[in-house]
UniProtKB/TrEMBL annotation:
The name this protein goes by in its record: DUF4374 domain-containing protein
Record organism: Parapedobacter pyrenivorans
InterPro entries xref list: Gal_Oxase/kelch_b-propeller
Amino acid sequence: MFLASCKKDDPRADEQPELMNYFVGIEVGEEYYMVPSKDIMSGSISVVGNGIEGIAHHAVVKDGYLYVINGDEATLDKYKITETGITKEDAISTAAVMSGSFARYTDLTETNDLLLMNFPNDEGNAPYAIIDIATFTVESYGSFKMPNVDRYKPSWCRAVVSGDKVYVGGEYGVPEVYGDIPDSLITIVYDYPSFTNPKTIISKASGGSVAGYRTNGSFKDEKGDIYQWNLRSNQWASNPEDVPNTPCVFVKITDGEYDDGYAFNVSEEFDEPVSIWNAWYAGNGIAYANVILESDLSVWDNLYENYGQLYEIDIYNKTVTKLNIPKAPLSDIFSLNSVKDGKFYIPVCVKGGNANIYEIAIGGGPGDVKVGAKLDGNNVYAPSLNILN
């Protein structure tokens, strides 16, 4: 599900409540819809028959406009969101700028550009394109080279922009040997927006990927530091025998270098091996993570069963709080930029059960949650949710 606030420029706004504060995208069965909505905490949100068809996996909403990848047409589409729906205004060919690849990720940078990118090819070249939102034009495009580290080659990446640098969290391994991964976390730092002058930085806090899974493996806090979480699991690139000895951690990058004095070993908070499959930053040192017991991941398909549990992670005070929210398949939620007035919102779609938006008081206790609007039917799939104030 994709959800974001829409600003309304109606001069009557002081005389009546805003009609369309949110934008929702959701899959029901095998059909995808996107539709404006005015409420996420009461009643039902029905998209069937009300919205336009489309997948909002990596969509971005900014200032009343929706930007979304159209995989069938290989375009980045721009829509204007209004009280009555959304209207397509423009499109950019991603096929023309993504160097023979496609736009796997669409991220809004702190300078209000859209950064499109994909993971590296066999030669380590990762395609990217930078789109200026104000003019909806291509600022630059090309590919950047991710270097090998010893015998390990890059296979996955995701970036976060901070100032004139871009931090590309990497996944490294030996292509011919599944599970042969370095005993470290690897990030490549480039000048931005040129993607030049690569610098490899390494943390020995743990092993695994800091490229994320569906969500970004890196985020920037209010102090300007970059935090990362690592993915390693018996179902993801790692040797299952090594997983119990390779902890789930949060690490910090300050002034372009890993801070070796900071590491939060989340695995120590559990009695058995776990893995983190998504984590979303909510502000003030609080992140929310989809944590799965490794004992529940005997096969890949279990990612899509009701094994995901949402935890609040305080990366400053190094605490972990299990929330009173039902277990659900949370692994395929692509992005959550869903913070408003001290609350964090997330769609929880229990397989075979109810699907609702949940409101969580940031920094509250395990039970400081509210059940919000009901989503269409059961077995729905919500790929992302974002709120813009």
